[in-house]
Structures are given as structure tokens and as C-alpha cells.
Automatic annotation (TrEMBL):
This is FAD-binding domain-containing protein. PROSITE patterns: FAD_PCMH. PANTHER family: FAD BINDING DOMAIN PROTEIN (AFU_ORTHOLOGUE AFUA_6G12070)-RELATED, GULONOLACTONE OXIDASE. It comes from the Eukaryota. Keywords: Oxidoreductase, Signal. Pfam families: BBE, FAD_binding_4. GO terms for molecular function: FAD binding; oxidoreductase activity. It comes from Trematosphaeria pertusa. Residues 118-297 form the FAD-binding PCMH-type domain. Residues 1-24 form the signal peptide. The keyword Coiled coil does not apply. InterPro entries: BBE (IPR012951), FAD-bd_PCMH (IPR016166), FAD-bd_PCMH-like_sf (IPR036318), FAD-bd_PCMH_sub2 (IPR016169), FAD-linked_Oxidoreductases_BP (IPR050432), Oxid_FAD_bind_N (IPR006094).
Length: 569
């Protein structure tokens, strides 16, 4: 049982069986209340909230409870263990989230059956949001009762923004409306899509395809589009031609901290529009819907490439990677591509390069500087080129199979942007660092590249580092659930303290959605020169600091204690 309306009712019956207890409550507490505190809302107060949201308040139970006594279920546990690292194991659960670091082995399928299933960082309650009034009710309750508040769609967040100990969650996942229109405004006239906050990329892609359109969403096709993806910037297969996800925004419908539903556009509540379009999610307001640009569908060219000689000399390998960075990759991105590639130990490959509107000949031409180098140096490789008549088919081939794909969600990662000038001037040092990471640590390199230097039709808060970058270098290690959690915490320490600092000295800026949660330089790296302006907008729209998310603008007002309690800094 994942947590249900019935579970809330059952809990309420138990809690209400005895006499009502009046509890003392501070008028201005320093910390958000946790269960067991005198100020924690009573069962009657939770019941009143439940009634105000039409019975859609959920008392959550971590779904891993089926792997632990006294609710152990062998078959359910075996199924959960098999699927635990995949997104679909978590996004339909009202309290589920995908950050293995923040799960902290509190209630998962890998600890012994007789280990207590702890609530840990899972939220205590979730409101299944179906309309803006549900959000308003949740905001009012959290503010009045001094309860931590989080906003969650899929829980597809590596930094733990969509969960929190003792929190009330606004679960946006079932706001699934999608409609299309011909949009007219001063900055943009053309096809547009309005989507509820719960729409995921695969749902958007399928709906747009039926209309003969394409729209931007994540390569991981289960990511929610209107949430942290677009609000954090959002890169896409289509980005080399159309820009960032945040560059597509036309309108936001958002409930502000004072419980008001407003529309934010480039001309109406323009500061809020600017902040939501790339300035980070979960902190300025609660997005109910997003209206974004859509485009006429087209053919889509794709390509992948891998070396076929497992015994390639290491020096030859890294000389080849250096050429790829300095010459091959710029040529491919200049052709309008979004490129994903990797180095894992002695293995190099391009997993996918995507160019909307390109033919197979166009793809080969874009890769020609690199493939000519490989041929001239007698380096064996295999290159596969594809041409699909629609974007949906391309996405299904490279990120599928639809609807969920096979990309795991559990990993540690850090990242850094490198501008073209940086690769040219510091290429030797960069190659040396990357080589050391892939040969002496348990991490591998999984960069991607696209040119999004052109200005969007309306100004937004996308990290300026995106605009001059050649590539974003991600350092990744998949989470190992079979070892003690302390082992993975040590790997996180190595990432933060040993691996990332040399890269940070060479590069500039990081993508907030795919970054190290413990990055001590998160303010300047995630937000760049926008941080000061974003802080002012945060103070205007959320003066009482209701919204908190790790590394979000305004999070400096709070700190999380060793017990998970959220307190004023």
C-alpha cells in the first residue's frame, strides 16, 4: 500500500479514539513542527484540511514498507526491489521521490526485513491537487499550522527538493490537462500548448504528435515538464534548434504564497514570469499550468557512435577525445545538434546526437570532421545514423520504449559548464582531469552539448552560463543499494571534495537540475549573475519564506538540522 485516502481515514480513527488534547503552540516558532511536537496539528485539524480538499488528503506510508515487518509481503517486495531504481517506481506514489541520497535507506527493499521502516525524509501528508483551490487550502494550512511545505510532481529531483521530513506535500502529478492553440502575443505568434503541472514529457510528446507538432521536454521522458524541468532551465533533444525549455514559456498560472492565483507573462507579473522561467522551482510559487511554444513537426536526424576496439591504447583514446572536444563537437553543435556522449573507463561513445529537420546526409556531414580524424588514425568505430519522420519516433528510439523508457533515476552527480573558449585554452588540463576521474574513481563522465547562445523571445532567468557553453560535463555514479548507505555517502563526499573542485576551477557554472547537492558554490554556479535579482523577486512574492527547497533561491533563510527539522537560519 503506497499511502491512500483510506490510510488517512484509518489513522484518523486511531488518533481520535481518545479524548481531544489541547496543545501549546508558539506564536512565532523558530522551527517547523514535526510529529510529536506539542504544536503539531491535531487529528481534528488534519480532518478539517481533508474536508477542505474534498477528501484528497493522504496520510503517506513509504511504499518500501512491504519489505519490512510487520507489513512484509514477499511478492510485492520482490517486485519493488526489481523496479526501485526506475522512475516509474516512484512518480505514482504520493510521497515517493527518486533521490537515493535523501531516501537514506530509511525504508527501501534492500535493508533486512526486520529493519524498521522509518518515515525518514518522506512527507507526512500529501494533498492530491486537482485544482488551484487545493493548493490554496494547503498553503493556508501550512502557514497557519507552521508545517513544512513541499511541492512535488514526479519526485524526479536529484537534490531532494520535492520532499522533506514532517512536510505537507502539494502533489501536482494528476494535473494532466493538455490543449493546443494558435497563440498571439508581441514576443511570439504561433502554435502553443497549455499543460497542467503534472504532465510528463512522454505525455506531451504523444499529445503533440497527434496534432502534427513537437514540443520540448526532457530526454528522460518521465520528467514533468512544467515543474523543475522548465523552471530550472530544461535542455532537450530539440534544444539545439529551439533553445532551452525555459525559452519556450509564454504563460504561467501560479498560486503565490498569499494564496492568490495569478497569471505571469512577459507583460503581466513580468518579474514572476522571469524568475519562474529558469530561476528554479519550488520557491516563488506553485505552478498550476504552463503555456509554452510548440512547433510544426518535422523529420529528425539522429546518430550514435562507439569505438569497437576494446584494446585501444589509452593515450590514443584521450588524444581522440581531445580532438572530439576541440574540433568534432563544435562542428556537430554548430549544425544544430543536441549531443550526449560518455567516457566510462576505456570506453568512449556518442549515445545520441539529434538535429531536427536533418537528413542522414546532414548527420554524416556534421560528424565528418570527427569521423575523418578516426579514419585517418585507423581507429575502429561503428556509427549508426537514423532518420525518423516525427520527433515522437525519434524520442521513442533513443529514450524509449514509450511510455517510460529505461533510464534509471538513482545516481550521484556533479556538473560544470565549459565555454568554447575554456575548452580551447584549458583543453590539456581538462583532459587530464577527466582521464583521472574515469581511471581512478568509481565515477564516469556523461557530458552533453548544444548551442543555446541565441537570446530567447522574452528575457528569462536561465543561468547565463548556458548561453556561452560548449558542453555540460556531468560526473556520475549510479547508486548502489546493495552496499551500506555509508559507503555511498563517502562517494558523495569524494565527489564534492575531491572530484568537482578541479573541474570548478576550470569551468564556470552548473545546471541546477543535474548538479551536486552539496556544492558549496551553488549560489553563483546554479544562478550566476541572476542570483541577486532572483533574491529580490523571492522576497517580494514570498515575504514570509513559506517555500523552501534545497539550494533554491531563498533557502538561506532556513537550515535543516541533523534530525531533518527545518529551522530558521
Amino acid at each position: 500500500m503506497k499511502g491512500s485516502f483510506f490510510s488517512f481515514t484509518s489513522a484518523l480513527v486511531c488518533l481520535c479514539a481518545g479524548p481531544t488534547v489541547l496543545r501549546a503552540q508558539s506564536a512565532d516558532p523558530t522551527c517547523r513542527y514535526l510529529p510529536g511536537d506539542e504544536g503539531w496539528p491535531s487529528a481534528e485539524e488534519w480532518s478539517q484540511l481533508n474536508a477542505s480538499v474534498s477528501g484528497r488528503l493522504i496520510a503517506t506510508i513509504p511504499q518500501g514498507h512491504v519489505c519490512h515487518d510487520p507489513t512484509y509481503d514477499a511478492s510485492a517486495c520482490a517486485e519493488l526491489e526489481q523496479m526501485w531504481s526506475l522512475p516509474q517506481s516512484h512518480f505514482d506514489d504520493p510521497s515517493g521521490f527518486m533521490s537515493a541520497y535523501h531516501q537514506n535507506a530509511s525504508c527501501d527493499p534492500y535493508t533486512p526485513r526486520n529493519t524498521t521502516c522509518r518515515q525518514g525524509n518522506y512527507v507526512e501528508y500529501a494533498i492530491e491537487v486537482l485544482e488551484a483551490e487545493d493548493v490554496i487550502a494547503g498553503l493556508k494550512f501550512a502557514q497557519e499550522k507552521n508545517v513544512r511545505l513541499v511541492v512535488k510532481n514526479t519526485g524526479h529531483d536529484y537534490l531532494g527538493k520535492s520532499t522533506g521530513k514532517g512536510a505537507l506535500s502539494l502533489w501536482m502529478h494528476n494535473l494532466k490537462s493538455i490543449s493546443f492553440s494558435n497563440y498571439t502575443s508581441e514576443p511570439y505568434t504561433g502554435p502553443a500548448v497549455k499543460m497542467g503541472a503534472g504532465v510528463q514529457a512522454f505525455e506531451l510528446y504523444e499529445a503533440a504528435d497527434k496534432m502534427g507538432l513537437q514540443a520540448l521536454g526532457g530526454e528522460c521522458i518521465t520528467v514533468g515538464v512544467a515543474g523543475g524541468y522548465t523552471q530550472g532551465g530544461g535542455h532537450s533533444f530539440l534544444g539545439g534548434k529551439h533553445g532551452m525549455g525555459a525559452d519556450q514559456t509564454l504563460e504561467w498560472e501560479v498560486v503565490t504564497a498569499n494564496g492568490t492565483l495569478v497569471t505571469a507573462t512577459p507583460t503581466q507579473n513580468s518579474d514572476l514570469y522571469w524568475a519562474l522561467s529558469g530561476g528554479g522551482g519550488g520557491t516563488y510559487g506553485v505552478v498550476v499550468s504552463l503555456t509554452a511554444k510548440a512547433y510544426l513537426d518535422s523529420i529528425v536526424g539522429g546518430a550514435s557512435l562507439a569505438f569497437t576496439d576494446p584494446t585501444i591504447d589509452p593515450d590514443t583514446l584521450w588524444d581522440t577525445i581531445a580532438f572530439f572536444l576541440e574540433t568534432g563537437l563544435p562542428a556537430i553543435t554548430d549544425a544544430g545538434a543536441h549531443v550526449q556522449w560518455y567516457v566510462a573507463g576505456p570506453v568512449f561513445g556518442v549515445t545520441v546526437a539529434t538535429i531536427p529537420g536533418a537528413t542522414e546526409d546532414d548527420m554524416r556531414e556534421a560528424f565528418a570532421p570527427f569521423t575523418e580524424y578516426l579514419d585517418s588514425h585507423s581507429i575502429a568505430y561503428q556509427m549508426n545514423v537514423t532518420l525518423f519522420p516525427s520527433f515522437l519516433q525519434h524520442a521513442d528510439h533513443y529514450s524509449g520504449p514509450l511510455p517510460y523508457g529505461t533510464i534509471p533515476a538513482a545516481q550521484l552527480q556533479g556538473g560544470i559548464f565549459f565555454p568554447r573558449s575554456g575548452v580551447a585554452s584549458n583543453g590539456t588540463a581538462l583532459i587530464s582531469i577527466l582521464r583521472n576521474v574515469t581511471t581512478s574513481t568509481n565515477f564516469y563522465i556523461a557530458p552533453y552539448a548544444l548551442d543555446v547562445s541565441r537570446a530567447p523571445s522574452s528575457p528569462n532567468a536561465v543561468n547565463p552560463a548556458w548561453r556561452g557553453a560548449l558542453a555540460y560535463f556531468m560526473v556520475i555514479q549510479f547508486w548502489n543499494y546493495t552496499v551500506p548507505v555509508s559507503v555511498m555517502h563517502e562517494q558523495e563526499r569524494i565527489l564534492t571534495e575531491e572530484i568537482m573542485p578541479p573541474l570548478q576551477e576550470l569551468g564556470s557554472g552548473a545546471y541546477m537540475n543535474e548538479a551536486d547537492v552539496h556544492n558549496p558554490r551553488w549560489r553563483e554556479e546554479f544562478y550566476g549573475t541572476n542570483f541577486g535579482k532572483l533574491t529580490e523577486i523571492k522576497k517580494k512574492w514570498d515575504p514570509q519564506d513559506l517555500f523552501y527547497a534545497t539550494t533554491a533561491v531563498g533557502s538561506d533563510a532556513w537550515k535543516v538540522g541533523g534530525d531533518g527539522r527545518l529551522c530558521r537560519a
